[in-house]
Target: Dihydrolipoamide acetyltransferase component of pyruvate dehydrogenase complex
Amino acid sequence: MSIEKMAMPQLGESVTEGTISQWLVSVGDKVNKYDPIAEVTTDKVNAEVPSSFSGKITELLASEGDTLPVGQPICAIDVEDGETPPKDLIKSEESMPGAAAPEEKDTSMKKRYSPAVLRLAQENNIDLKQLNGTGRGGRITRKDVEKVVAEGLIPAEEPNSETGKSTSGAASFADAMAQAAAVQMTTQPAVDEAGDVDVPLTGVRRAIARNMVRSKHEIPHAWTMIEVDVTNLVNYRNQIKNLFQKKEGYKLTYLPFFIKAIVAALKEYPRMNSTWAGDKIIEKKAVSISLAVAAEDALYVPVIKNADEKSIKGLAIAVDGLASKVRNNSLSPEDMQGGTFTINNTGSFGSIQSQPIINYPQAAILSIESIVKRPVVVNNMIAIRDMVNLCISIDHRVLDGLITGRFLARVKERLENISPENTPIY
Model:
């Protein structure tokens, strides 16, 4: 017997460190070669670390949540006689050799699914609860799922008892979001009580949860709000909306006017159109607007590419097209990629104030609230005006109050000065 130490793997060419998101073994556990022993998260991938030896775990050299550089030992194994260390000590689950673990009666790890297993099951509408895993403790491996798919024996997900519909969340945009969200959530299960209804997580909801938790965990949020008099905008839009719809076949909502003003201000203040990159801030050349669009069960954020190159008509067409894709469940991964700044039209639900969570890894998100008539003072007289609140959340690592205030003031100025003379639709 000899003690061998396993090191933090390099899960990608540019990866320099990894985080132990979950240990799958404890000190004293017996493991076989290729048994998964830990889940590791990097900024690029989630992967299972398989054991390079058969033996007994003698020491865990890192705790869950610890981030270690590539090459630093993570655990020690008392290796059985005859075992020789392989040249490549650690491989991710995606490239792990296909040696199946011996059959075990223990099923304590059956419900611990890796990101790759979850993704593959989602893509093929497989109910993992109906599979028997060949991994340690009954854990379902990627090869278990691939075997079921290859043999055509695909257990469909059980229908929801409330709706009678499948609970599968397989969708191309969900896959894209799930792959982008590299951090896994580790939570303690809640206890069901009488009368409670379990609502299975769809792939989309799972991806949203991961990205939101990552945003709040990693980004120091700051928030502010301004009010804007949009009486001129309301009057202008009311004058032309019927003619526009008759001519173009699209509804002319307020949203394209807001997007136009925001995009113009982003061009003047490019720091608002940035992302945090660890040791630097990247000001994005493209101005592509991520637009929060609500569906029945989730919130999607498709992207208007190069929004600064579009007229108000072009923005109206883009908004209508993305909304239609959300309703028809036809968004593609391409529709979800490339956003540099997010706009959230919470006013469509009657909201007058909100604190949005930043769409990671962007630096800001702006909510457009409801347009409401309010009494305000104009030239020392009380007047009824159409007012709207603009609420913005910012990444305080990238932005501060000064530049954010100037940006909002410019958006306000542009919106309050909308008129037929200086606001062309085409």
